[in-house]
Amino acid sequence: MSALILDGRAMAARVLDEVAGEVARRLEGGRSRPLLAAVLVGDDPASETYVRGKRRDSERVGIASSDHRLPASASTQDVLGKVADLNADDAVSGILVQLPLPRQVDAARVIEAIDPDWDVDGLTPYSQGRLLLGEPLLVPCTPLGIMRMLDEAGVELAGRRAVVAGRSNLVGKPIALLLLGRNATVTLAHSRTADLGAVTREADVLVVAVGQPGMVRAEMVKPGATVIDVGVNRVEGKLVGDVGGDVVEVAGRLSPSPGGVGPMTRAMLVRNTLLAEQLRKP
Ligand code: NDP
């Protein structure tokens, strides 16, 4: 039997409709239009594509967006200066610094400089600390999108075994904390995990965010498990996930990549922009 495919595009469209409805209500109530400010350093083609997609989503829900471009040669001070300007701009609802930054820029310092109230990517130490304390406010968009997918699909979490492969601050750690917050029993695996297959086979819910094309194969998956493929890898010009094509035959539900977590991540960015605006201007 083949897994039920979780349709990230359809779910993302519902999230965007919800956000659009709420933005429209706020505008009718005389509130200002939320504004998402994106800082883009250099001209990385993948980043350009992401930022274009974000602009499109913002437009669709009635959120304004502004792009702030710096040359690839920009220094840490240059980027910090731009972030400081945006922090001081009351018209801004959310600040997004597009990663990766060029090597000479201290990305940790830049992220830390974002005012936590504007932190729509949920990457500042404050936002991540709140998540660790079990009191999340602005949560990174990919893990947030995954939780929404699991909820929409009616996946039981309390008391279930969840395994997360990958421990980045962007995906692995925050999704592990969110799953823990929903009372799953969580294992966080990484490149030094011994016998990864034995660990992943325990999972009722398996989230794979390793950046290794097709690494998780059918024999690493418990029959009937819910599998979320976060990976986005370019192989011979094609985008593929971290989960192999045979997993669909074993899993109970599968969020494929592309077409799963990606659209949800983008939808959650506009949702976080609205949330940041609501928190500051209730
Ligand atoms: P990182 O490179 O920051 O982290 C990768 C993690 O995977 C690390 O913790 C690493 O372990 C672990 N890992 C690498 N190889 C193995 C292995 N063979 N076995 C077990 N663990 C391994 O990546 P990100 O978390 O930023 O992204 C992961 C993937 O998700 C990428 O493909 C990325 O493109 C994609 N992504 C997709 C998004 C979307 O919107 N769809 C959003 C964000 C990411 P260690 O810590 O030990 O090095």
Q: Describe it for me?
A:
The chain has about 280 residues and is of the alpha/beta class. It has two domains: about 80 residues, Leucine Dehydrogenase, chain A, domain 1 (Rossmann fold, 3-Layer(aba) Sandwich); about 120 residues, NAD(P)-binding Rossmann-like Domain (Rossmann fold). It has nine helices and eleven strands. The strands form three sheets. Strands 1-11-8-7-5-6 form a six-stranded parallel beta sheet. α2 links the parallel β2 and β3. The longest helix is centred in the N-terminal third of the chain and has 21 residues. The protein starts with a strand and ends with a helix. Bound molecules: NADPH dihydro-nicotinamide-adenine-dinucleotide phosphate. NADPH dihydro-nicotinamide-adenine-dinucleotide phosphate binds next to α9.
Cα gyration radius (Å): 19 Å
- The CATH class of the largest domain, by name, is Alpha Beta
How would you sum up the global shape?
A: globular
Ions, cofactors and other ligands present here are:
NADPH dihydro-nicotinamide-adenine-dinucleotide phosphate
Order of helix and strand elements from N to C terminus: EHEHEHEHHHEHEHEEEEEH
Give a summary of the structure in a few sentences.
It is built from nine helices and eleven strands. The chain is of the alpha/beta class and 282 residues long.
